[in-house]
Design goal:
Number of strands: 4
Order of helices and strands: HEEEE
Number of helices: 1
Strand order of the largest sheet: 1-2
Distance between the termini: 60 Å
Largest sheet: 2 strands, antiparallel
Oligomer: single chain
Length: 76
């Protein structure tokens, strides 16, 4: 039978390994979801109130896909 300190160490190692494994799993899962939208620029149309994204990091403006109005990118 294990004494108290050895059992505590084994418990901490198992719990730490499980915690790190779940952390890595969720990090990879969220990275896969947001990787597709990374590098897009957000725009808000002032004419039809649509919010849309354009691929690439455009500095200037982009035409709205709904009404065709040229809009500047959103700045947060």
């Amino acid at each position: 039978m294990l004494d108290f300190t050895a059992a505590t160490v084994v418990y901490c190692v198992i719990f730490g390994t499980l915690f790190c494994g779940l952390w890595i799993y969720h990090d990879r899962r969220s990275h896969g979801r947001t990787g597709k939208t990374r590098g897009q620029t957000a725009f808000h149309c002032i004419r039809c109130d649509a919010i849309y994204a354009s691929p690439g990091s455009q500095v200037g403006s982009c035409n709205c896909p709904r009404c065709g109005h040229s809009n500047v990118r959103l700045r947060f």
